[in-house]
Design goal:
single chain; 479 residues; mainly alpha; 0% strand; globular
Length: 479
């Protein structure tokens, strides 16, 4: 047995501590969205610049994840995790104290930098601490449930804080969560650094950060500018070229940032592809559910968040079940039904009416339950497949890759489906000049949700051959 397996109950402290950090990272993505209108008014942000409060975080987080995974392995995952928590707390406090837009944007970028270290270190701690099949499944189930619930919790918490305490507390709340988790790291068993003494893959680090950052920036600009804008096409093409160059460099590097052996296994690639497509579809789903609840049904942000709590609870149930079944059934038996359930949920909303009569019971609740259960079933097995059976020194890289494809999927999904919705709404108004604006708006949502359904069904078709096997949740060890 390993040192962690004989460590007794103390190692189970890893789970709540890492889950607190996971909640911190996920919650921050939505809680700031709710706080942004108030921050814009107080700090004088322009409509053209306000998105940088979101984009600065996404650029730093997505662009530096692979570097964060490498640093985590070199420092030791517990030490890197603690540094990430401390840095995130400081950046959050500075954001809450911001007196002008530049200070807020810089603080948000700082949060992204430390989140890029925190996220892969946390997942690596889980996978190296819980090595038994059943206990790993349970741990990843809880971890996935917290992650799935974090977005909805952020909406509710952000609405309450912005309404009753002020937008700055949407950032200050991160400090308390981060400090509690930091105190908890004293109870986490120590791990050893990976022992890699090679030179830092500088070329790979620069290319990966620039490539990921350019793609995320293009996706962020696609919403307000459209995909045909040079401001979008330039970074998108440049990012694709930089990532292609990154892949070429990693194949030849003596000590690569992302070893090719991490991506050499069919099942691991299938898991990464599945979770990317899920995030593409689901982040558009969350966006439209929030808009529909507020713009069509007249809900407040807090009420809209409470509606989405149904999805969060269903995701917790799905991830708990998936975690308990880990090792007992093949990963495909969880991932593929999960994708189909999520597709069924988005399909329900393709018939969404522009009026709000009984729509909560007939459309929203079934969709929220199905998508939540589906997401919960997909997250634990894909996390297990993405991070299991890698060399100890590659754990950080595998964990970072899993988080990186989620970030890319979320950025691409939000931009892509928002563009589809806007285009469909405009086309509907042009074809029906007498139509009410809300009718065109809902038509745009249903068109985009049809695209999300197609993406989830495509995910079933392309990932089934990759993850289908007779195994019980593992992949062959990397060589």
């Amino acid at each position: 047995m390993t040192e962690h397996e004989t460590g007794g109950r103390r190692r189970w402290w890893v789970l709540p501590v890492v889950c607190a950090a996971q909640l911190l990272v996920v919650l921050d993505g939505t809680i700031v969205n709710i706080a942004l209108p108030s921050a814009q008014r107080e700090l004088g942000l322009t409509d053209a610049s306000r998105h940088w409060a979101i984009t600065a975080y996404a650029l730093a987080f997505g662009g530096l994840l692979l570097i964060g995974g490498r640093v985590s392995g070199a420092l030791g995952h517990r030490r890197a995790f603690a540094v990430g928590l401390a840095g995130f707390a400081v950046a959050s406090a500075l954001g809450g104290l911001a007196a002008d837009p530049v200070a807020l944007f810089a603080a948000r970028a700082g949060q992204g930098v430390f989140a890029a270290l925190l996220a892969p270190a946390g997942l690596a701690l889980l996978t190296t601490t819980f090595t038994g099949t059943r206990e790993r499944g349970r741990a990843l189930g809880v971890f996935a449930g917290v992650g799935a619930a974090g977005s909805a919790v952020g909406l509710v918490a952000g609405g309450l804080l912005a309404e009753h305490a002020g937008w700055r507390w949407c950032l200050y709340v991160n400090v308390s969560v981060a400090l509690l988790a930091l105190l908890g790291t004293a109870l986490v068993p120590a791990d050893r650094p990976s022992g890699r003494r090679g030179r830092l893959d500088v070329a790979g680090a620069v290319l990966s950060a620039a490539g990921f950052g350019a793609v995320v920036l293009a996706c962020a600009e696609a919403g307000p500018r459209g995909w045909g804008s040079p401001v979008v096409l330039g970074p998108l093409a440049g990012g694709a070229l930089l990532l292609a160059a990154f892949a070429a460099v990693e194949v030849r590097a003596a000590d690569p940032l992302l070893p090719v052996r991490v991506l050499r296994h069919r099942a691991r690639c299938g898991a990464l592809l599945a979770i990317t497509l899920v995030f593409v579809a689901m982040f558009g789903f969350y966006l439209f559910m929030s808009y529909y609840a507020q713009d069509v049904l007249g809900c407040t942000p807090v009420q809209a968040g409470l509606v989405l709590i149904v999805n969060a609870l269903a995701a917790v149930v799905g991830s708990t079940v998936a975690g308990r079944l880990h090792g007992r059934v093949p990963p495909a038996a969880l991932v593929l039904p999960g994708l189909l359930a999520a597709a069924a949920g988005t399909a329900v909303l393709t018939r969404l009416p522009p009026q709000g009569v009984d729509v909560l019971w007939s459309h929203l609740l079934p969709a929220l339950v199905l998508t939540g259960l589906g997401l919960g079933c997909v997250l634990p097995p894909t996390a297990a497949l993405a991070t299991s059976a890698v060399r100890p020194e590659d754990t950080g890289a595998a964990s970072a890759t899993y988080h990186a494809v989620q970030q890319l999927g979320a950025a691409l999904g939000t931009a892509l489906l928002n563009t589809v919705a806007a285009g469909a709404a405009g086309t509907h108004l042009a074809a029906h000049p007498d139509a009410a604006p809300v009718e065109a708006q809902v038509h745009g949502y249903t068109t985009a949700l049809t695209a999300a359904t197609a993406i989830l069904l495509a995910a079933v078709l392309v990932t089934a051959p990759l993850i289908a096997s007779r195994g019980r949740g593992t992949v062959p060890a990397a060589r």
